[in-house]
Amino acid sequence: MSRILIVEDERDIADLEAFHLQRAGFQTLLAETGQEALKHLEGGDIDLIILDLMLPDMDGLEIIKRVRLRERLQRLPIIVVTAKGEEMDRILGLELGADDYVVKPFSPRELVLRVKAVLKRTGSREETGGIIRIDGLTIDEERFQVLINGTPVKLTATEFRLLSTLARARGRVMTREVLLDKVWGYHFEGYARTVDTHIRRLRKKLGPMADYIETVWGVGYRFRE
C-alpha cells in the first residue's frame, strides 16, 4: 500500500485530502510545516508527496530543492498544490523537479486521479525494457539511467519517461495532448503548460544533446532524427 505524505497547514483541506486518498486505498501522513515534512522524509518509506507551496515556516519551493538534492529522494514523486493565481509558483515548482500540480480549489476525485497517474508512471516499467542509443545519448529503460557520452544525467522519473517517450518516437511530432496522455496518464484542458515546463527543464539537463528535442511551433515536440 502506497504511503502519501500530505504537506498542508490548512487542516480542513489536509483532512479532506486524506479522507479521499484513504478511501482510494492509500495510507496518509500529515505534516503541517516544512520542518515536519523533512522529518517524515528522513524516516523514509514515503511513496509520494502532496505539497502545498504556502507553508507557515518554509517556502514549498525550498522543500522541492532539498528533496531533489538528496540522492535517495531524487525520484520521489511530488505533486504541488497552489492557489489559482500562482502560475509562476507552479512553473517554478515544475522547473525545480515537481512531477505535477493541482490548483485550489480542486475536486478530491481529480487529486486521487493525479496521485494514481503519477505513481503509475513513476513506478511502472511497462512498455520499456530496452536500451535506446542516439549518438552520444544512452537511455537504459531497465536501469532507469541516462548517459551522455558516458556521463550519468540525473532525471526525475517524469523527465525520464518524457525523454524515453520522445526518443522512441524519433522523427515523429508528438502534440502536447499526446504527451500528457502517454507520460502523465491523463489530459485535462489547460495543462499543456506542464509539458512545456518539463521540456525546458529536460533540455537544460541534456546539455549538448538539448537540441535533439525540437519544438514544432503550434503543434508540439519532436526528437530529431
Automatic annotation (TrEMBL):
Keyword Metal-binding: no
Pfam families reported in the protein's UniProt record: Response_reg, Trans_reg_C
GO CC, one annotated term: cytosol
Keywords: DNA-binding, Phosphoprotein, Transcription, Transcription regulation, Two-component regulatory system
GO biological process, one term: regulation of DNA-templated transcription
UniProt GO molecular function: phosphorelay response regulator activity; transcription cis-regulatory region binding
Cited SMART domains: REC, Trans_reg_C
Functional summary from the UniProt entry: This protein is a positive regulator for the phosphate regulon. Transcription of this operon is positively regulated by PhoB and PhoR when phosphate is limited.
Name of the protein in question: Phosphate regulon transcriptional regulatory protein PhoB
Organism lineage: Bacteria, Pseudomonadati, Thermodesulfobacteriota, Thermodesulfobacteria, Thermodesulfobacteriales
